[in-house]
LIM domain only protein 3 (Cryptotermes secundus), 153 residues
Amino acid sequence: RFLLKALDRFWHEDCLKCGCCDCRLGEVGSTLYTKADLILCRRDYLRLFGNTGYCAACSKVIPAFEMVMRARNNVYHLECFACQQCNHRFCVGDRFYLCENKILCEYDYEERLVFANMAYNPPSIAHIKRQTSHLPVSHVTAFKQLPVRLFNL
């Protein structure tokens, strides 16, 4: 049997264990961590006291033990995973889009596309009349009354 020296004390091989998962820390090459009078393996130390990075929406630290949402390489707190235009919270099955590193709901994404296309290709009055002339009057009226939202693109 061997004795291990850690934290200025001697330990039996079987006695030096992680305070959370009870894995043996006497294995060759294993590293132990201490925090708040706990002896921990690397995995449990990072899980309890590490962080997974920063939230892409609020830029605050995300603790390693916290549940997160991911979109491509971005990580979000659960409460921050919402449309960054209208603050709509997403439910399971909702579609969302990652546009210029911002999460958008389907409505705001499509609205942004429409306004972006209009900015690059402003339609002429004649073109709009041709596209709307076959529509019933009530439909055209409803289209004209939609609220206009401006975006910085």
